Amino acid sequence: MEGINPDLIGITADEYSDFMAVNTANILDISGYRLYTQLSNLGTTGTDAALAEDAVDNDLLIGGVMPFRDMGNIGAILWRNKDVRENAIGFWDPNTVDAGTGFVDLVTIGQNGEWESTDIDDSGLDRTIEKQSGEAYDNRGDISITALAGLGSLLPVGELGLRLGYSKNVTNDISREYSSSYEDEGDANNYATAKFSSEEQDYTSVLMIAPSIRGLSLMGADLGATVELAMVKQVANTERDATYTEGDTFVGGVGVSDDYARKFKAENTEELTGMRMGLSVDGSYPLNDSVNIKGLVGFRTGKLTGDNSVSSTDEVTKDDGNDAAVEKVSFNQDISKEEKQTNIRILAGIDKQVSDNLLLGIGLGLSREALETVEDEGREVLDTDGTKSYTGIGAAGGLGTSVDETTVKSVATVITLPIGLEWTANSWLKARLGASYAITYRKEETETVTITYEDDSKDAGVDDKTTTTTTNNPLPTRPANDAVNFYAGVGFLVTENLTVDVTNMAVGNILLMNNWRLSATLKF
């Protein structure tokens, strides 16, 4: 289906897509045994070569279907996608740390390997890098494990399907490590050393159960339905550590004339959990011997709740030759968060055998996604002397004296016009080509309730705060963008028991084999 057009899933018949993405009970259409496989990056020769090209995107799929006694069919599918990318390395500048947000500023210095420069802090003096090392990679990807069953004779009307699945989508898995030491030429007392490490991971995991039924008749149409229940967990976590020391005459540093050391540690963790439920109906109606009208209608809604917790400690030690002075600030911020999401999808089209060797699929799709996010912010700062403040950490931290409750409502509507062709060249070769034109409309509204404290607030008393509510002018519904996606692929009947498909050929340069997907299906 990736060669014809994935936007036609549910319109143009496809054995694998019909039971994986339309109605699980369609697994009953398979006779005998199946083994499905898929590989990618046909032009990649080894990990080093892939990373040298800045990114590598790998797909792996393996699974199969087999008869289950006389009751029906069962199957299992494992799919793994991995996207590895190099990340720029940076060094920590202690003059630009924002302890209030818990993030360390990075100054990009390039990719992995050695790096040298002069006058790195614009002081007019030459700096010599004595040692520098670092690495940074971002691993992204998806994994899904699906178990399927189709039971054909348990009900007087219709046939049953059941899907159990677990999936995890990792949008960021970043690891950075960096260390360096440098000094002014000819002045051993004018030096600095820095170490920095960072770990970031963002992912969403879903545990799902979806029973389905097919074979229901209504006014000549063949109907099916699927109910989906899922538990969802969404996590975003960042941990950062940094240390910095400098000599007593370093120009441009905070210490200037003092021995200076700084330790910084920050953690930002967001975890949301909740439930999702959905209902979809699929159907077909034979218009004549060569034309089928097909369609899908789906509805899904879910709600996630949880907290975003930010904490940091910033400790500075200065020694002017007499007594070492230590300044320490601890910062904590908790944001309660709630997300509500609703999706509606409608797809209709025809599947027509134009001639003996040409199949046409054409459709019209409409989808609408509504998302409402509410964030309720609160914070406290603990100074070196143990006093607690609700006013942020002043101008240096950039937080000011306000906290917000923000509600964002957004709606995205997408109209899709997909078309696809499959041409049977001979008994062993099929060529596939497709395109989709999509128009996207967006609308967004933001409401913010701001609580502002007096500059010297030490508690959350009523007398030292004011409340303001602001609603922006809602953005009118307008075209956000339109796009055309192309698809191409070829299929080979190697033997009666083996078919091989090459898909994803129309992404970018058709000659760039790194984008191709190679699938093989065994039938026996």
Task: Describe what this molecule looks like in 3D.
The radius of gyration is 30 Å and the shape is elongated. It has 524 residues and is mainly beta. The relative contact order is 0.13. The chain is built from 3 helices and 20 strands.
Biggest beta sheet summary: 16 strands, antiparallel, barrel
Shape: elongated
- What is the number of E strands? 20
Strand order of the largest sheet: 1-2-3-6-7-8-9-10-11-12-13-15-16-18-19-20
Class by alpha and beta content: mainly beta
Helix proportion: under 10%
Kindly report how far apart the N and C termini lie. Answer: 22 Å
Low-confidence stretches: 42-55, 91-95, 97-129, 251-256, 392-399
Element order: H for helix, E for strand: HEHEEEEEEEEEEEEEHEEEEEE
Estimate the mean pLDDT confidence: 79
Would you summarize the structure shown here?
The protein is mainly beta and 524 residues long. The protein has three helices and 20 strands. It starts with 14 loop residues before the first helix and ends with a strand.
Strand-helix topology:
Blueprint lengths: L14 H8 L11 E7 L6 H6 L2 E14 L3 E15 L2 E4 L13 E5 L16 E25 L7 E26 L2 E32 L2 E26 L12 E28 L4 E29 L4 E32 L2 E25 L5 E2 L4 H4 L4 E23 L4 E25 L11 E7 L6 E18 L2 E6 L13 E7 L1
